[in-house]
Amino acid sequence: MNYPSITHLLNDENKPYFEATKDQKLVIQYCSVCHTHQFYPRVLCMNCFSDAVQWVEASGKGKLYSYSVVKKTFIPEYKDKVPYIVALIDLEEGVRLMSHMVDIDEGDLFVGMEVSVVFREQIGEYKLPQFVPAK
């Protein structure tokens, strides 16, 4: 699939996340003061407001919190992808992120199913973290 470039969307807060995808790593932030993980990227810890946040590699394992099956799109880059599954994933580290579920039929999805991250598609030089049912 041909996605548009996202280079213009990178900033100091989110660039480490996208750079890690080049090596097929899913990273999230961790506060060394209150020992809390967070996602999406921020300058300060959302729990204690410390600036002692650092990037750590996530396990890539989690559970499906919710999902939606998209059957119609007006985005040209997604025209050949419908239907696709947009999912909210609760990672083991306690953060929730939005992604896609792949390699599963919509009838086999269920809230609470265990999932793991894969990196298959790209946006320019960056790989997309997507999720599959855990083995």
Strand order of the largest sheet: 6-5-4-7-8
Write down the secondary-structure element order. Answer: HEEEEEEEE
The total count of helices amounts to 1
Low-confidence stretches: none
User: What's the number of domains?
Assistant: 1
Label this structure with key terms.
135 residues, mainly beta, five-stranded antiparallel β-sheet, globular
Task: Describe the structure in your own words.
The chain is mostly beta strands and 135 residues long. The chain has one helix at residues 15-21; strands spanning 27-31, 36-38, 53-57, 61-70, 84-91, 96-101, 114-123, 126-133. Helices cover 5% and strands 41% of the residues. The strands form 2 sheets. A 5-stranded antiparallel beta sheet has the order 6-5-4-7-8, with helices on one face. A 3-stranded antiparallel beta sheet has the order 2-1-3. Strand 7 (114-123) and strand 8 (126-133) form a beta hairpin. The radius of gyration is 16 Å and the shape is globular. The model has no long low-confidence stretch (mean pLDDT 93).
Characterize this entry briefly.
With 135 residues, this protein is mainly β. The protein has one helix at residues 15-21, and strands spanning 27-31, 36-38, 53-57, 61-70, 84-91, 96-101, 114-123, 126-133. A hairpin with a 4-residue loop joins strand 5 and strand 6 (96-101).
